[in-house]
Amino acid sequence: MSEATARPSGTADKGPARAGGAYQKLLAFAGLMVLVAGFSLASPSFLRTDNIISILQATSVNGVLAVGVTLIIITGGIDLSIGTLMTFCAVVAGVVLTWMGAPLPLGVLAAIATGALVGLVSGTLVARAKIPPFIATLGMMLVLKGLSLIVTGTKPIYFNDTEGYTAISQGSVVGRLIPQFPLPNGVLVLFAVAGAVAWILGRTVLGRYTFALGSNEEAVRLSGVDTGRWKMAIYALSGGIVGIAGLLISSRLNSAQPALGLGYELEAIAAVVIGGTSLSGGRGTVLGTVIGALIMSVLTNGLRVLSVAPEWQTVVTGVIIIAAVYADQLRRRGAA
Amino acid sequence: MNGLVRMEGIDKRFPGVHALKSVDFDLRAGEVHALMGENGAGKSTLMKCLSGVYQPDAGRILIDGQAVALPTPKAAQDLGIGIIHQELALMRDLTVAQNIWIGREPRLSFGRIDEARQNAEAAAILSRMNLGIDPRTPVSRLTIAHQQMVEIAKALSYRSRVLIMDEPTAALNDAEIAELFAIIARLRAEGVGIIYISHKMDEIRRISDRVTVMRDGAHVGTVAAAETPIARIIAMMVGRELTDEKAAIPDLSAAETALEVRDLSRGPELRGISFSLRRGEILGFAGLMGAGRTELARAIFGAEPADAGRILVHGREVSIRSPADAVREGIGYLSEDRKHYGLALGMDLRANIAMASLPRHADAIGRIDEQALGRIARDYIERLRIRTPGDWQEVRLLSGGNQQKVVIAKWLLRDCDILIFDEPTRGIDVGAKAEIYRLLGDLAAGGKAIIVISSELPEVLRLSHRIAVMCEGRLTGILPGGASQEAIMELATQREGAAA
């Protein structure tokens, strides 16, 4: 999606640079609508309130992860450690809350801080030690997977003693106001994170440099910008967001499951790609990523409602990823 | 008349730009037809229409008198139209022969490649060009000049009867240019039609038969090269006569010293360079390719810091280990390669102009003041006369001269008062050049201290108040402005002892 690329600033909403981006966003959104329409025609239960809520709930963890990694992908990097980092952050929350008996806010803070710290380490490896992001975060992915298992002794940590922990994701502030539509808090968290990141990307110096790094890192460096520092900040921010995902998933499971995590990174990257963000950097939007994550959960849910076997759901998801990127390529060729 | 190519009424529009306005162009067999015009005049767009990259909105293209459709570059290639790009498109790790035959290798059974035949046919083409290159040499081991000739060989291997050359001599030295021209002469004698895009007047006079000038997307005129004075061609390009001014040398004896470099060294590339630069002064750096001028600029700017030596800015010693350090001291660097080192091409003018000074235009939480930046960007667009539909335009869509102005704006906004220009007019056409020269003069008059590195002696002479000359990593002398070309060349070739 070139919208935020061409005009990450966006005060003057005009000019040819804008038209293509709006069109692409429309395309992803139209794809989502087609899926929703198709499934609701195929099964009357698809559009029921409880099913819609369950789709949104299922989107929250992957959506938050995907929004976080969107930042890194726009710089032209990649982060393969987000899945196991999410688990590690959940484990840290478990240690702080269950084993140490600390109050809830402290556990929340610990999880987010852990994510940001690990992100900072990855960012340092990439920016200062000049290790390619793929390798640095591949290593980090394995390190974190091992650490989670070591810390927990491979056993889950349950949050039974922490009052209100499950409410982070499962409770519903909205439901208290509108009982007919008990939207879980996890979905609100996704919207809040997405809104915040979209704001950062569109309005702040950090956001502008995120696009600039992905567009031409050497030119940014030769503009006298300490590119390493900004890159580290971006990885740390992304890590903090992964910490939030760790809270969401452990809240939903009421436990930190140390064996979980591997595979989530690819689901998140898939959502980013479906949303039109370029893996070569410089282009991408948060809204696109959220739509991408929604497309993935609508697919999974819809196919399940239609009683398609889980094996086939995976195949279809794969095909959709390729089709989405292909559609984007076609559009770009048309625009050139 | 032996008409090989005719383009009639070619019209092409892009969003916001009418790139080609009903342009006519023709090429005869066995002629070198120079295509000239300022950047943004439409030369490249016209050639992209001829080579199947763009589709014209109106008009028709005839080859041998037959109207043809060129929907793809391949279609153009099949009709014998070959293009040699300014940026070389070779696979560096493959051999010369492999590059020439890429995509249509002679086959043996089971899909094996007939390397022997491939090498033999490549050798035949190379010898037709009178080139002594072994077709089995990896391209990465060839000089840029020879890589370019491999591109030409590749085009010839498609039995091209039309060759489009886009600034083929930009990276070549005099001997290499002579070699290239000899090849062009051979091809012309064989009846190949050559369209030659260049900004260098002397080259045009040397090799071309006719010259077509374009301006603002329109065909201005086609003239015989031998009979038309250069001043007339330039006037056609810019729409007015240019005078060949020399720099007026101001009295700077009272001016403050802005930059002082003492014994700057790095490996064999830079050896004990010392000089000083005053406010309001333009110090030109002359020298041959590889003399170490760009290396010096990058060392002062911290892009590749020096190993030894001292740098003083406004009399205060500073430590410059990175571009960030240099910019903090008010030093800006404009690379010869704007696209790779100066601009984020996919971003708009506003973002590029603000690239070095974003944090200054943001509040405590990092929120950018877009309104102010928009105002600033539009102000620079006006002051530097950047031709663009607006500050939201992606800089990749600007011409070279206008891109250069965006980089200048970036450093002006950052309040840099020491500016290092590395080949400030590379790839920029005559009219825009004059504008850049005037801009540099204005900047110096306004108190900026300016270093200009240029491989074009007339440019150095035209701009510089003093001229520093380098050879093999050493500063061999500093001459007063207006020095003779002979004096500069003598210093530029003053090698150390018997070495090298």
From TrEMBL, chain A:
What InterPro entries does the entry give? ABC_transp_permease (IPR001851)
- Keywords from the named record: Cell membrane, Membrane, Transmembrane, Transmembrane helix
List residues traversing the bilayer: 26-46, 52-73, 80-100, 106-127, 134-151, 187-211, 232-253, 286-306
Q: Where does this protein chiefly localize?
A: membrane
**Gene Ontology MF, one:** transmembrane transporter activity
Membrane-topology annotation of the record: Multi-pass membrane protein
Q: What subcellular locations does the record give?
A: Cell membrane
What would be one Gene Ontology cellular-component term for the protein? plasma membrane
| Name assigned to this protein | Ribose ABC transporter permease
Organism for this UniProt entry: Paracoccus salipaludis
From TrEMBL, chain B:
Instruction: Tell me the SMART domains matching this sequence.
Output: AAA
Chief subcellular site? Answer: membrane
Q: Which residues form the signal peptide?
A: none
GO MF entry, a single one: ATP binding
Q: Which SUPFAM superfamilies match?
A: P-loop containing nucleoside triphosphate hydrolases
The keyword Cytoplasm appears for this protein: no
InterPro entries under this entry? AAA+_ATPase (IPR003593), ABC_carbohydrate_import_ATPase (IPR050107), ABC_transporter-like_ATP-bd (IPR003439), ABC_transporter-like_CS (IPR017871), P-loop_NTPase (IPR027417)
Pfam families annotated for this entry? Answer: ABC_tran
Its membrane topology: Peripheral membrane protein
Where does this protein reside within or beyond the cell?
Cell membrane
One GO CC term, this protein: plasma membrane
Could you tell me which residue ranges the ABC transporter domain spans?
A: 5-241, 247-497
Does the entry feature the keyword tRNA-binding, yes or no?
Answer: no
Which key words tag this protein in UniProt?
ATP-binding, Cell membrane, Membrane, Nucleotide-binding, Repeat, Sugar transport, Translocase, Transport
Please state what the protein is called: D-xylose ABC transporter ATP-binding protein
Organism listed in the record: Paracoccus salipaludis
State the organism's lineage: Bacteria, Pseudomonadati, Pseudomonadota, Alphaproteobacteria, Rhodobacterales
